[in-house]
Structure formats: structure tokens, C-alpha cells
Amino acid sequence: MEKIRILIADDERPAREYLKRLLAEFDDVDLSGEAQSGTEALEAIKSLKPDLALLDLQMPEMSGIEVVRQLRKTQMPLVAFVTAFDDYAVQAFELNAVDYLLKPVEPDRLRETVDRARERLEQTDWRAAETERIANAAETYEASTRNEPLTRIPVKKRDDIYLIPVADVAAIVADGELLHITTAENDRYVINFRLKGLEARLDAERFIRLSRSALVNIDHVDRLSPLPGGTYMIVLSNGQQLESSRQHSKLLRSKMLKL
Q1: Handedness of CA 8, 14, 18, 23 (dihedral sign)
Q2: CB of 182 within 8 A of CB of 241?
Q3: Which of 23, 72, 240, 244 maximizes the CB count within 10 A of its CB?
Q4: Cα(106)–Cα(110) distance, rounded to whole angstroms?
């Protein structure tokens, strides 16, 4: 039996190592490579030409969906998206028959994915079918996330996943590829996500930009102190202080300082 060549793409090394250990138990697969970002995954798919790509849905630089959107139909492998539980993503994938794996990945579920990939590889023009399935799933997913604001943010701490109510979030500050989330109770969490992407999922009436790297929940703003140059120091109810940029101070005034 010819082995299925698999690429693993996940920004977290433990997640990649875990998938590699599971795949090592399968005698009909061959690990062709791995990637730790969306950009690396895109280049690896183009150069290594795997049969099946296990793509983390959320990665630095490019999400799993954005990766496959950059591929021509002739470059498209079979794809299984790997994600923490996301109602919208699961619904989009199931509606459009796109394979997915929920973290933590179960060995039996991974086995099903490999078997399904083998069946699809035997179909005529499977690349065109996969391209269409993923395009439809991406459209469904993005339409769903645009229409309804996020209510909870999944945050991983060690082996546990906490669901943080968005209403409790006071501020979100970007630092490179990481987002630092602070709650009204001063609990702090770190996630790997793009600020622009998360902002699009939040209620625009509640969360406003202070700068290129900071979002604040206006429900948790205690006071604003004017600074030279028309900017402000924003003091939150938890004591956290953030400075607004000149560019975003105008929006801040219109949102918060008008009766």
C-alpha cells in the first residue's frame, strides 16, 4: 500500500510533536514535513507537495484558511483543519464536507481522517473538489463570524482551555504575535492571534482601538486623562493604564466624550 504523505502545520511545538507521535503509530503514512506558521505552511505545501495537510486553523501571519487560499488548484492537497472548539468553524466544515480535527486530537479521529484522505485520493479530479469544498467552507465561516460578535474567548493555560466571557475583558494588547488579555478582575491571559482578526469578531460598540496595538472595552474605562498633543491616558477600572495614539484619539472623543 502506498503511503500517504502528510504535512503538519501548527505554531505550537507540543501540538506538532503530539500529532507526530500519533502518526508514528500508523504504518500507512509518511511525515513529509512540518511548519510553525502560515507562511511556512504555504511554502512547504508548494515545495513538498503532501497528499494531506493538517493545518492549524489559527496560526501567525496566515490562518489555515488563508494558506489554502494562496494555493493554485494544481497545488492543493487534501486538508484537515486542526482547531480548538469553534462553533462557527465546525458548522462551516461540516456543511461543506471539509475534514477537521478538534484539539486535543483523538487517535481514532485522526485514523478516520487518514482513511478518508485515502478514499478521496482515489477520486478523479479530487483537487478541484477539495478546492471547492474549502472555498465554500471559508465563505460560510466568515459570513457566520461577521454576523454575530464573539461572546467568549478560548484561552489555553497548560493543558486546560478557559472560556473567557468577552464582557469581562477590559483590554487586549498586542506584543508581536501574542495578544495579552486583561480582565476586569485583573486576570491575565496570553493567546496567539492577530489583533485585527480578533477585533473583527468583537462588538464594535463595546471595543474600540486606542492604538495600533491596543483595544479597550469601554464598559471598563474609569477615566481619561488628557496628554500633550491631543492624546489621552486611559485608566481602566482594574487600574490598568493605556495611552491612546493621536490617530485614534479623535474616535475616542466621539465615542466617549460626547453627551
Answers
A1: positive
A2: no
A3: 244
A4: 6
Please compute the mean of the pLDDT values over residues 19-38 and round it to a whole number.
94
Query: In this structure, what CATH number is given to the domain that contains residue 74?
Result: 3.40.50.2300
Rounded Cα distance, 254 and 256, in Å: 6
Write down the mean pLDDT value for the chain. Answer: 89
Question: Which residue, of 126, 147, 168, is where some domain finishes?
Answer: 147
Query: How many Cα atoms sit within 13 Å of 10 on the Cβ side?
Result: 21
Q: Report the number of distinct structural domains present in the chain.
A: 2
Residue 234 lies in domain? 152-256
Structure confidence by residue, pLDDT tens digits, 33-70: 999 999 999 999 999 999 999 999 988 778 899 899 88
Q: Is the pLDDT of residue 143 over 70?
A: yes
pLDDT confidence of residue 6: 98
pTM over 0.90: no
Task: Examine the fold and report which residue of 105, 131, 147 is the final residue of a domain before the chain moves on.
Answer: 147
**Using an 8 Å Cβ cutoff, are 169 and 180 in contact?**
no
Same domain, 42 and 91: yes
Residues 199-235: tens digit of each pLDDT: 877 888 889 899 989 999 999 999 999 998 888 999 9
What CA–CA distance (Å, rounded) separates 134 from 68?
A: 8
